[in-house]
Design goal:
By secondary structure, this protein is α/β, with parallel strands linked by helices. The chain is built from 14 helices and 15 strands. The chain has helices at residues 3-8, 33-42, 58-72, 86-90, 104-116, 131-144, 158-168, 199-204, 213-222, 243-252, 340-349, 357-371, 379-397, 410-413; strands at residues 24-29, 48-54, 77-79, 97-100, 120-123, 148-150, 175-183, 231-238, 268-274, 279-285, 296-302, 305-310, 313-318, 328-329, 403-404. Strands 14-13-12-11-7-10-9-8-15 form a nine-stranded mixed β-sheet. The longest helix has 19 residues, at 379-397. The protein is globular and about 60 Å long. The structure holds nicotinamide-adenine-dinucleotide. Nicotinamide-adenine-dinucleotide binds at residues 29-35, 54-57, 60, 83, 86, 101-104, 106, 124-125, 153, 354.
Length: 414
């Protein structure tokens, strides 16, 4: 068997690892701005090749095909024949893995179909939007024995990896709580230029935290969720919708259909308790009228350390490293804890989006797929973090009643 046959057969066990020059052949499904950013980040990586592309939008399909042809001197096959044409891409023998960057509701089914076709999956966030789809996805990955990666790029932020390494080195002592959030006014993205609604507008009409993984992914890693502790229960409440309707009245007029839509709330706050009793505060605020500073924040409190990532500035106090009981910039104490991925890729990464993390995310994923390493963010983490969508919706609708987390991770042990 060649390495590629082993990879496709799902037998790429560590003893049968790829040579470093080996490549993974990708098919991309969904070619919007997000896929384009990831494509630009990944094309310089030697192990990344693109053999096929799929989008229902012909312009985007042609633009992505041009980008691949120009940068890699290889013309990919294209699939633009409708919402199910991705199944034809999945049938290709020269596709080892797919990158799914379609609207959120489509991720789970496309990943499940890709698994059934024997492909590895790299999925944009979230992994799924319903609890049922979280379970279906977990079962599909277990049945297919292919690698599933949730491409949660905030886990690859340089500073978030530094804090993770500090936690593992014991510098925070016993961890107790985290605060994290996604705070980014995306009101302008809900309607197309001609005023027609898109999938984001539909999402805005639903209640709860509809996009939790950027906030919760890094802090779940810090707290060893699914690796010694687990999310146990969640309560969630939402604010009324005042900012989004206000902006739509200004943009489309008070009598417009857009201004009459009932939205699910500008801001949502969830509290999660872990099985060990730790506390997470998770904010989702995608519509409040508020100038943009930083899309996410991730704070951590431990018995011997405290980390504050606020408004784009990262400060820390560590009993073992700080001379005084005062905050200092993370930069002052980071040297020993910069992650190996950033040491190797940092210079190239600085040009890429999201503080360079888009490049490091793709580099890490390519290493995992090409070398048969474990998924950097597997389906159990993906399902656990994405389950916040369905659980927060239930909690908000029940006036803030606690919701138990499904234990997706239990089936990993079986
Ligand atoms: N990780 C991040 O930082 C980050 C940033 C932005 C967006 N995202 C995520 O990436 C995904 C895509 O975001 P976007 O801004 O590019 O969205 P988008 O709506 O602009 O692009 C999605 C693309 O998918 C295509 N598509 C829809 N249905 C399809 C189908 N059945 N078959 C093939 N193609 C189909 C659409 O035509 C469109 O081109 C979303 O899930 C979003 O949440 C992640």
């Amino acid at each position: 068997l060649t390495r590629r046959e082993l990879l496709v057969a799902g037998l790429g066990a560590p003893a049968l690892l790829a040579a470093p020059s080996d490549t993974v052949q990708f098919g991309l499904i969904g070619l919007g701005p997000r896929a384009t950013v990831l494509l630009r980040s990944a094309l310089p990586l030697k192990r990344f090749t693109v053999t096929a592309l799929c989008d229902i939008d012909q312009e985007r399909l042609a633009a992505a095909a041009d980008l691949v042809a120009t940068q890699s001197r290889h013309k990919p096959a294209t699939y633009g024949g409708g919402p199910k044409d991705y199944l034809n891409l999945l049938a290709r023998r020269d596709v080892d893995a797919v990158l799914i960057a379609t609207p959120n509701e489509a991720h789970a089914q496309m990943a499940i179909d890709a698994m059934a076709a024997g492909k590895h999956v790299v999925s944009e966030v979230p992994a799924a939007v319903t609890l049922e789809d979280c379970w279906r996805l977990v079962r599909a990955v277990e049945a297919a024995r292919r690698t599933y990666v949730l491409a949660e790029n905030c886990c690859f932020y340089r500073e978030n990896m530094i804090v993770r390494n500090m936690v593992r080195a014991g510098l925070f002592g016993e961890t107790a709580y985290t605060e994290c959030g996604y705070v980014h006014d995306t009101s302008d993205l809900q309607f197309n230029a001609d005023g027609s609604p898109n999938w984001r507008s539909q999402r805005a009409q639903e209640v709860g935290n509809r996009y939790p993984t950027h906030a919760v992914g890094p802090v779940a890693q810090w707290l060893d969720i699914n690796r010694g502790d687990r999310f146990a229960s969640l309560v969630s409440l939402s604010s009324p919708s005042v900012s989004l309707p206000h902006k739509l009245r200004k943009r489309f007029g008070g009598d417009s259909p857009q201004a009459k839509i009932k939205f699910g709330g500008d801001s949502n706050m969830s509290l999660i308790r872990t099985a060990k009793g730790k506390l997470l505060q998770v904010k989702y605020d995608p519509y409040s009228s508020r100038p943009h500073i930083s899309t996410t924040y991730h704070n951590l409190q431990g018995s011997t350390g405290s980390y504050l990532d606020q408004e784009g500035e990262q400060r820390i106090w560590l009993e073992a490293r700080s001379k005084k009981y005062e905050w200092q910039p993370l930069k002052n104490v980071e040297a020993d804890f910069v992650d190996d991925l950033w040491r190797r890729w940092g210079d190239q990464a600085t040009q890429a989006g999201h503080r360079g993390s888009d490049f490091v995310t793709m580099a890490a994923i390519m290493e995992a797929l090409a070398e048969g390493k474990p998924s950097p963010i597997d389906v159990y983490d993906g399902a656990t973090w994405s389950a916040i969508i369905g659980l927060s919706e239930k909690s908000v609708k029940s006036g803030g009643q606690p919701q138990e987390f499904p234990d997706f991770n239990a089936s990993r042990a079986c």
